[in-house]
Amino acid sequence: xxxxxxxxxxxxxxxxxxxxxxxxxxxxxxxxxxxKAGAVKxxxxxxxxxxxxxxxxxxxxxxxxxxxxxxxxxxxxxxxxDTDPALVLTNGHCLETGFPAPGEVIVNRASxxxxxxxxSSGTRVATLRASKIAYSxxxxxxxxxxxxxxxxxxxxxxxxxxxLTVQDTHPTAGTAITVASGYWKRLYSCNxxxxxxxxxxxxxxWKDSVRYTSACQTIGGTSGSPxxxxxxxxxxxxxxxxNEDGGTCTVNNPCEIDAAGNVTVRQGINYAQQTYQFPAxxxxxxxxxxxxxxxxxxxx
Length: 300
What we know:
This protein is mainly β. It has helices spanning 6-15, 36-52, 152-159, and strands spanning 64-66, 71-76, 85-90, 105-110, 114-118, 124-137, 143-151, 164-165, 176-181, 186-201, 204-212, 226-229, 235-242, 255-257, 263-264, 270-274.
């Protein structure tokens, strides 16, 4: 699980990586040329590239939050209203009361946890407060959703920050993504490498996990970060773990298990849990309804 670690803190202190907010990687463009013919050719190449693939967006830290031990984000679902109580998404293992046990599902439990709301450059602009833990589990997935004491409209009018929208469809392999860490005020960009039938870490097992390409070298403290599709700006997963030491199915060393039971270990590779299942389970006024049509989240 990607929690803050002494080693990670020390490494970042040496490197200075945590000293300033990161910026999104720029979209690659064709170099300018002073030759007219070259300019025409460059424009044609750019047009062909844009027609062949979606335009990538510059993902920022706006809407992300810093927790005491993890990262997170203010999120909405496709049917959420501006007047609904806002929600924060993070990991199940980031819960302030400790890791939920295998098979445990927590719903509608009171909480007054606070979150530091960040703007696009990573500056903390507000402190938000939870009213309850709407949903939390480490079974099949690794996610917690907090309900806040304020609405999306109030957050936007007071701080100029809009929530991130959670995509309600399964992402695809090859998608360009950014992992946005509010804890470190840092962005990691890579692609979805594929999906893991089952992933086991210690006593916990997760289904259909997202595997990143090697460029996303997330560290302790990035747990709970939103995984944002660069083409749509929507959240497709929540960052949660990586194999640090090459161990097999142990804490901080998750393993992949395919449908036939074969085990694969990928040291240095990091993972996330998909979030497309959540919109169907939150209905009127962003209230959890595990009996709603299409809701497949684990139940208590």
